[in-house]
Structure formats: C-alpha cells, structure tokens
Design goal:
This protein is of the alpha+beta class and 262 residues long. Helix content is 71%, strand content 10%. It is built from six helices and four strands, in the order H-H-E-E-H-H-E-E-H-H. The chain has helices spanning 3-8, 14-43, 77-100, 106-128, 155-174, 179-261, and strands at 51-55, 59-66, 140-146, 149-153. Strand 3 (140-146) and strand 4 (149-153) form a beta hairpin. Helix 2 (14-43) crosses helix 4 (106-128), helix 3 packs antiparallel against helix 4 (106-128) and helix 4 runs antiparallel to helix 5.
Length: 262
Amino acid sequence: MTSNAMKQKKILKLPVYIAVYVAVIAVCILADQLTKLWIFDGLLGATEGKSVKVMGDFLRFTATYNEGAIFGMFKGRASDIMFFIITVAATPLYAYFLVRARSRSVCGQVGFAFIVGGAIGNAIDRAFVCTDGTFFSGKVRDFISFSIFPPIFNVADSFLTVGVVLAVLAIVVFDPDSLVNGFGEERTAANGDENADGQTTKTQTGNDEGAATDGNNDATENRGERTNDLQNTAETGGNAVKKNNADNAAEEAENGKNGGEK
C-alpha cells in the first residue's frame, strides 16, 4: 500500500475516533472486572486454590492471586510494585500509539486499544484488591486454567496478548508504512531505476546507430561527389585534347595551302 492509498483511506475525525476506541477500552475493562467478580469472587468465593471444572480437566476455573506479571511470571513483592509502576507509566504511551494509529490500519488500532484496556484492568486489581488488609497489594486475580497451558490467567491478560499480536501484525504487515510495504516500495523503486537505466541505454544505442548511419550516408555522398568530379575532370581533359587536335589539324591544313601557293 503506497502513500496514495494512505491518503485515500477514510480516516475518522479525531473526536469520533476517540469515542469509538474509548468504548472499546471500556468494554475490555468491564469484561475483565465483571468476569473476576462473577467467577473469582462469586463462583470461587475468592478462595485461593479453589477450582471447578468447566470442560473436564481441559478447562478449569482456579482461583489464584498473581503476584507477578502476565501469566504469573516474575513473582515477588518487589515485582508487584515494579509492574504496577510500569503499567501506570506505560498506559499513556500505549494511548499515544492508539491515537497515532488513526491514519493506519484498523488492526493496529484495535491492538493498541486491547493493550490499554488489558493494562488498566490489571492495574485496577493491583491497586484495589486487598488480600492482607492493605490498600495496595500489587496482586491480580487470575482464574482461567487450561491443561495444555500451565500458567493461570484472566481476561485482561487475554486482551493484552491479543493486542500485542495485532499491533505487531499491523507494524509488520498491515499499516501503510509497515515493514513489508516499505520493502515492497523499495523493490519497486529499484526496478523503476533499472528500467530507466535500460531505456537510457537503448536510447543511447539508437542514437549511436543513427549517427553511424548518418556517417555512412555522408561517406557515400562524398564518394559520389568525388566520382562526379573525376568524371567532369575527364570530360574536360578529353574536350581539351580534342580541341588541341583540331587546332593542330587546322594549322597543318593552313601550312599545306601556303606551300601549294608557292
């Protein structure tokens, strides 16, 4: 997709764009928080370790407080504080990328909206879920467990994961200025330069051939002119000889006449 296609793409007005994706972010946050209230706090009674089967052992709801990053990685009190700070600091950056994506692909727009929504969903847990009587526990409520995927996660984690995948696809493939499109434009430009060089070479060759033909024609004309000059010279010489012979004959006839008179 070229810059012309980027110009032709219909871009939502900024207020409309913001309204649409604020709604998307709100849906992500509500989906995360409501499932935690319904399943973690309601069905599982917020009892860590409690588990119920949903699809046999393949899918279970298991209550756990995640003390680390996404999918339970990097656990520890220091990690809880660090990831809360990172989430709070990074969310405005993701929001900026979302606004910046307004002139780019919908894939990237949805991806960054999912990232913002998922990050805020987990940040709410880190700030307000109280497991030890303190305001800030830094923990996140997780409950989705698959037998083929050991880490336990929540809906916000899902939005974060899908959002990152969509954002990467947009940057690499779908955006007008994506890496793939940029590579294609470079190849097109290179091919255009090669074609232009080839056309220039053909034109130069044609000019050289034309110049050679003109030179041959000039040489032929010069040979023809020299031949005509030689013919004219020969004719002139022949006429001079004939005139000289005639003069000699006339002179001899005049001499003979004078001798006869004597």
